[in-house]
Backbone:
């Protein structure tokens, strides 16, 4: 039993489980995880909330959304260019999301990786090269 408790404590300390029961596959304390979380707090939290559940009828949830865990290129385009007037997973949201094309490719990769691996999401990382390719291709 002590071994199980020690293993859980190790995983908790590495950031695999956060205090609010959100699962993250980026160990906390790493530069990318810390930067992604900080960027989320700065640019995303006010609309999508600390829980990633958004605001009903205004801002879509990031938790459990196919728009977050699905096609990376679509997600990158949304963050670069913003979004307005789209149904997200069958729901309509009325707030306009501004584009965040002022963020660097590295910053976008970090925040998108954070979002894709937080709030119960279990999707792979977004690389700076993937962001650069979408940015270069235009809208």
Residues:
């Amino acid at each position: 039993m002590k071994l199980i408790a020690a293993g859980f404590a190790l995983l908790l300390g590495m950031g695999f489980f956060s205090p609010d029961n959100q699962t993250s596959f980026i160990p906390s304390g790493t530069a990318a995880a810390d930067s992604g979380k900080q960027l989320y707090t700065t640019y995303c939290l006010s609309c999508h909330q600390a829980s990633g559940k958004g605001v009903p009828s205004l801002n879509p949830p990031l938790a459990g959304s196919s728009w977050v865990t699905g096609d990376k290129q679509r997600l990158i385009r949304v963050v670069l260019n913003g979004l307005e007037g789209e149904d997200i997973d069958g729901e309509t949201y009325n707030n306009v999301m501004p584009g965040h094309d002022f963020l660097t490719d590295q910053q976008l990769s970090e925040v998108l990786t954070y979002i894709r691996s937080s709030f119960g999401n279990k999707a792979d990382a977004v690389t700076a090269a993937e962001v650069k390719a979408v940015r270069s291709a235009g809208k």
